[in-house]
Amino acid sequence: MPSSVINVLARHCEDATVPCSSVEPRDLAALAEVLAAVPDPRRARGRRYLIGTLLALCLVAVLGGARSLAQIARYATTASEEVRAELGLQHATPDASTLGRLLARIDGDALDDAVGAWLARHAADPVREDGVLVGLAVDGKSVRGSRTDEVTVHLLAAALHESQTVVAQRQVAAKSNEIPAFASLLARLDLRGVVVTADAMHTQRKTAKEIVAAGGHYVLVAKGNQKKLQRQLRRLPWKQIPLLDRTRTAGHGRRQVRRLKVCTVQAGLLFPHAVQAIEIKRRRVHKKRGKIQHKTVYVVTSLAPDQAGPSYLAQLVQDHWSVEALHHVRDVTFAEDASKIRTGSAPRAMATLRNLAIGLMRQAGWANIAAAADHYRSHPEHATALLEITC
């Protein structure tokens, strides 16, 4: 019988550093069934392994910290009989070339849609039930080790602020940029009750209209790509507006103070659906060098004052960078940029599996992903149990 989130993940909490998720069970396919339903690109003749078996093997190995196809194949070879039986590998073991051929030909959009939909239902619904807006950060990342003939795989992802869980991902076309991929990324998501945050590249009028038309809200930074808008924001009467929020942070060898002011804007601002404008002044002190940096950032949002006060707006702006923390984990813990997997869809598929592994670890209550990988490497039965989760 498939297990609920509580029944499976609660067994892992002894080693986690934060409480486990309090998600209630839902009528949704088990994770193993979701992976098995991904379209198989291989010809039916000659198939030795089911696609669900191979994807489950890859996921369980990545949960244990596997960084390459060779390490995944080695995991399958050294796994216990019980784990091999859970994965459906009782009679044979796939090698790295078998895994590579599958991942190189797999439909990246289909895999991302299947995994993203499962994670979105798994991670976002409990927040929405409380009527709280859900922060969704959109940001891009290049998989540097995938570079071939001057082309590098570049992925645009949408990740939940609170859990750093990627619920949608798209690959940016080789001769394009992130802007055209933005609409496709969000097209399959339910944006009702969602606040989309993004960097200045995505501060586009068309993007703002699409987000609001889908029932969502936006918090977008205005920089030089929107010169007229930036000029308008600078001319607002900031000196007459009192300071509404101040935060102090310390870390990474620096201290930082952020001061925030908010201004309700009237019709005429050169950006659709903008209701509030935000001025953030940052003062950063580098401890070792003693260097002091000052920076002023302007932000526009479709959120009304009764929907988001100054403190919450400051939190949304700051939490956007949680997606950068996710990218850091993929690079440091899973050595994504050092990976030499380059063929076809394989770099993207491996990134999707890393996103799924990190999402599961976060839902299990892990704050330290490296420690989580150590745990699942030492307790593979916990990793295989995740395949039976229903949300």
How would you characterize the overall build of this protein?
The structure is a single chain. The chain is of the alpha/beta class and 391 residues long. 39% of the residues lie in helices and 22% in strands. It is built from 15 helices and eleven strands. The chain has helices at residues 5-9, 31-36, 51-63, 69-78, 81-87, 96-105, 108-128, 178-186, 205-213, 227-234, 310-319, 322-332, 346-363, 369-378, 380-385, and strands at 3-4, 134-148, 151-160, 166-171, 194-198, 217-222, 245-251, 254-264, 276-286, 292-301, 389-390. The strands form two sheets. It has a nine-stranded mixed sheet, sandwiched between helices. Helix 4 (69-78) crosses helix 6. The chain starts with a strand and ends with a strand. Mean pLDDT is 88; it is low at 1-8 and 16-27.
Fill in the keyword field for this structure.
two-stranded parallel ribbon; 15 helices; 391 residues; elongated; 22% strand; disordered N terminus; alpha/beta; nine-stranded mixed sheet
Helix content: 25-40%
Kindly report the spatial arrangement of strands forming the biggest sheet.
4-3-2-5-6-10-9-8-7
H/E element string? EHHHHHHHEEEHEHEHEEEEHHHHHE
Secondary structural class: alpha/beta
- State the separation between the terminal residues, measured CA to CA: 13 Å
Shape descriptor reads elongated
In terms of DSSP E residues, the strand content is 15-25%
What profile does the largest beta sheet have? Answer: 9 strands, mixed
Low-confidence stretches are 1-8, 16-27
Report the C-alpha radius of gyration, rounded: 22 Å
The tally of helices reads 15
Mean pLDDT: 88
